[in-house]
Amino acid sequence: MFDYIQRILKFIRFSHTVFALPFAVGSMIVAAHGFPSARIVLLILLAMVFARTAAMAFNRVADWEIDKQNPRTAGRHKLISKRVGWSLVVVPSIAFVAVSWLINPLCFVLSPVALAIVFFYSLTKRFTSFTQFFLGLALAISPVGAWLAVRGQFAFPPLVLAFGVMFWLVGFDLIYAIQDYEFDRRKGLGSMVVKFGIPGSLRLAQVMHGILLVCLILFGLISGLGPIYHAALVLVLGALIYEHRAAAQLDIGGINKAFFMSNAFVSLVFVVAVAADVYA
Q1: Is the dihedral of CA 63, 69, 70, 76 positive or negative?
Q2: What is 17-279's CATH number, 1.10.357.140, 1.10.230.10, 3.90.1150.10, 3.40.430.10?
Q3: Is 158 in a helix, a strand, or coil?
Q4: Mind listing the pLDDT tens digit for each residue in 154-204?
Q5: Could you please report the per-residue DSSP string of 193-217?
Q6: Which of 52, 97, 114, 202 registers the highest number of CB atoms within 10 A of its CB?
Q7: pLDDT tens sequence across 187-198
Q8: pLDDT at residue 259, as a whole number
Q9: Domain boundaries, the chain
Q10: CA–CA separation, 251 vs 13, rounded Å?
């Protein structure tokens, strides 16, 4: 049983939850001027886990036959059956809508829209090269959703943060997608790396992460965050430089290591800096 649970977690890449979750938590802390009630915190965490699980499972089943042909992903379909994969789409989706209903009416009404956005990304590689932007949009809704869970209304700060998260994702996925360049080009799949080439994609990734830093600075300014938060952005800059230097070597093992370590570090530094500044 434990082995089967491990295979499910590997199938949905549960460890990558560390990327989006801190930005949602940071948005939540700013919206509440601290931590909201334990009930809201729990519901936000559950909503994030359910939505991401459904999205990742849908991505896996939608690309089931494609992944079989890609050497990097050929083992995914062996982890669980396709039927179980579909159940990991349906059950968490229902749970996400139910949790949204418990949060507030606006979150409940928007929950199907959120699911549609995160599912749509998985289909985009079939008709556009700009798939990374759709994946970025899927990740970007997390800080907006967390803000809505606390405040029940839209505001400018989470939208700026969402914009930054989108470009952060585009940047690091451009680097990550280098691994699939030959396969995607051969199969005619949409990818910005195929469209712009590897050198062009690496330069574009730098631009994307530059926009991220601008958005993080702007988010701090309009949210009233102080010197602790803004000083921590130096660490974010350092992590991004490390990631881009590793990517420039075009070493797949190095790219994978830099991808996880630097991006996990960026998101964790962000949420710690927000919390430290709010409670200072």
Answers
A1: positive
A2: 1.10.357.140
A3: helix
A4: 999 999 999 999 999 999 889 888 888 788 788 777 788 888 898 998 999
A5: HHHHHHHHHHHHHHHHHHHHHHHHH
A6: 52
A7: 777 788 888 898
A8: 67
A9: 17-279
A10: 22
